[in-house]
Amino acid sequence: MSHVKLAFIAIRKDCEQAVYATLLSLRETCPLLENMNISEHGPGWHLTLLLSVFSTITNVELSCAIPGDTLICLSRMANLRALKGTLDPTDPFMSSTTVPLDFASLQHLHWTVCDLSEAAALLHRLQPLGHTREFQSLTFERNNCDIDSDVLKLFLNTLISTCSTQTLSTLALKDGGVPDMMGGEDDCSALGTASADLRPLFQFGCIEVLRLERLPVMLDDAFIAAAATTWPHLRVLHLWSRMPWGCAITPARLLPFARKSRRLEKLEVEIGSWPDPIQPPPYGSADTGRRDVPLSVYIRHSVMENVVERTARLDFIRGIFPNADVACECEELIW
Hints:
Leucine-rich repeat, LRR (right-handed beta-alpha superhelix); 11 helices
């Protein structure tokens, strides 16, 4: 057995020795245990005791918020390579202490934060003394999607200074909050472009998977073009704008992007505007010279359409990706 899922119930402190003996027995029964999923942990001593017994675990997934003391305990697990979880939002750990987080072997982090300023603070605490951390994958899920450009700049600068640009292959900045829909096109016109404001990301030359959702930038063709040039091994590109009108990507630019992205397996982007009338894609499809791998393409947009226009737009995308599984959806049905 290499994987176990545990859910603790409320156990009295005077039963600690019995719990410890039970955990030791489980460890002896499962000497090859590597992965642990914890959905509930009750009082803090439960989880601390568990982690002390299974100190050689390599993968921990927490479906419950943990206190700062538990995060410190996790950081001392020398073999831990992958961690998914979140801090208890009422715990002052990130703001009240500067205790470093060792995590000698950590390479994959999936963490839920309030916003990207909390993510930046965590990256600083995770940085090994004197050098950058060699993450392979890094995912932050935000509870608050209404961040401003200054917070995004702070996060990107922290990302560059604390994480190795030579090892990171997966970066995801996901949004789990509800956007403020009171803003309009005037608000989006004040946004900087993704190709300019997200330029620091191009220092990470080994990116294979990039997922960006609802950042305070205007998605644009220049970012798509730079992504194809900078990341030749790109397999997944997922770009959702902050608002339905916060995108300036045009369908015509998908063709040169796809021709350069020969390893592409999944493309999920928004289209800001369509040509009128829609003509067949210029210079043929993007399939020439592609690897023989399945390709999924999902396009969403905020431009109203009738049945004829919808068919024409879908045919346009299929003309670029003739052998892909293509879907196209109007954004008003989503937001």
